[in-house]
Amino acid sequence: MEKRWQLKPADPVKTKKLQEALKVHPVLCSLLVQRGITDFEEARSFFRPRLEDLHSPWLFKDMDKAVNRISQAIAQKEKVLIYGDYDVDGTTSVASMYLFLQKIHSQLAYYIPHRYKEGYGVSKAGIDYAIENNFSLIISLDCGIKSVELVQYAKDNGVDFIICDHHLPDDILPNATAILNAKQPDCAYPYKELCGCGVGFKLMCALQEKLELEDNPAFESLDLLATAIAADIVPMTGENRILAYHGLLRANQKPNHGIAALCEQSGLKQELDIQKLVFIIAPRVNAAGRMDEAGKAVELFIAPDRSTALEFATQLHSDNTDRREADRTTTKEALELLNNDPTSNEKKSTVVYQPHWHKGVVGIVASRLTEHYYRPTIVLTKSGDILAGSARSVAGFNLYEAIHACREHLLGYGGHFAAAGMTLEENKVNDFKAAFETVVSQSIQLDQLTPLIEVDLEVSLSDLNLSLYKLIGQMEPFGPENLRPVFWTRQLKNTGYSKIVKEEHIRFSVTDGNTTFSGIGFGLAKKFHLLQQSNFDLAFTIDENDYNNQRTLQLRVLDIKAS
Description:
Elements: E1 4-7, H1 12-22, H2 26-34, H3 40-47, H4 63-75, E2 80-84, H5 88-101, E3 108-111, H6 124-132, E4 137-141, H7 148-156, E5 160-164, E6 178-180, H8 196-210, H9 222-231, H10 238-253, H11 257-265, H12 274-291, H13 295-302, H14 306-339, E7 350-353, H15 362-373, E8 377-383, E9 386-392, H16 399-404, E10 412-415, E11 419-424, H17 429-443, E12 452-455, E13 457-458, H18 466-473, E14 487-494, E15 499-501, E16 505-511, E17 516-521, E18 536-547, E19 550-562
Parallel strand pairs: 1-12, 2-3, 2-4, 4-5, 5-6, 7-8, 13-14, 17-19
Antiparallel strand pairs: 8-9, 9-11, 10-11, 14-16, 14-18, 15-16, 16-17, 18-19
Helix pairs in contact: 1-2, 4-8, 5-8, 5-9, 5-13, 8-9, 9-10, 9-12, 11-13, 11-14, 12-14, 13-14, 14-15
């Protein structure tokens, strides 16, 4: 599939000024300016994230109410239930809060709703569990901000709620004892992009200050928080960058038993970075809720020793193996459905349905189909008597609005700009499919149907060296709004040594006439013919190739096109 290359704007004046202050490679200075870093002090804060620069937790609206209510529960030995969602953010939130509170309170339990029996967020079954077992306080993490009726139901039955959430609130808020959510219009907390685990962390910081706890126990689960930040794809800016940076330090030096066990189970030998959290740790944690029951993930993280953690890590590894097989077979079947549909190529959207597909992988399969066809995609399966689906968008297209426009065919729906979920009756599939295609066709821009590669800078091969690579490495942790830099180099030639490897990939050897570089391009074999042209352009990131104990700089090629 052809891709659009879009060069980000650069500011040569600010770049030159920053270079004079920092006296480092001009390419690095341009990258920093693109990220809003324009002076020495901002650069220092960026490259040396300090925990001392975190905002006071007391800036959160309702923080005093939350801390006072928990302090009262501890003093009066009330039963406290920690409630969280079944994904990585939810399970790490619950585990972090549990590990923190168990040091100071014994009347404690946690609750994770079952993905298929109870659904996302606060459930009536969860509140009934609290009522039946005499819990008088629920602390909800990564959910609760939209649970107006259920929080009132809890209150009517003598159960108070403290809500720690980061999702956008509606106009009507739940009747909770305290709501910690920086996205409330009247909340003065300056950083608005914390994940659910991050909001829980701020509550723990306030509690340890109020209760005068020694040794900063709130900071002992920063590796779990870094995992939540990575998995929830929140901006890698401000406090998230500080917390992810120090969380990775902890993950590599003194990890939670669960993190260490997952690394061991997956055979990981290298240091953990954000990418490994996203692609190795997070899928195994998520697999528990997708394939079975997410409480296993919490048990993994609160395990008292490595051997206990390894038992749960083995179960999660098995769940992830099942998840990958379900993902593979469902994606294969979905692609066959589309290939056998003569009208498929004419459409601007994709909607596929099979009743036997595993509900736990429909979101992943929707992402795979979006990568393959690059158009707004919905994958549906049967869940009990109704259908449940997961949707993924393409860059720049508001998926939630498109689904909202088709709401007459749905039982329920929710989500945001890029991803959503919905339920509907089986006899409404064709009507919904047609309505969704009509809405997408009328509202999507043609260029939004072509994948986009955002390029940071245009460079020459002579700009690239190990010194620059090491400086770029110090820009980690990478994530949204601080992605690994992508470069564009024009007018390159094949040295004659480029070749296709393993039928799908290209091993590059390219030159601009003065400098020669090798590189690897995964999945680019179909574009090998472009290397036979007199000149071509490459879009790439730079990394190190470690071969025979020799480390050399190489290009990791994202795309190739004729000059």
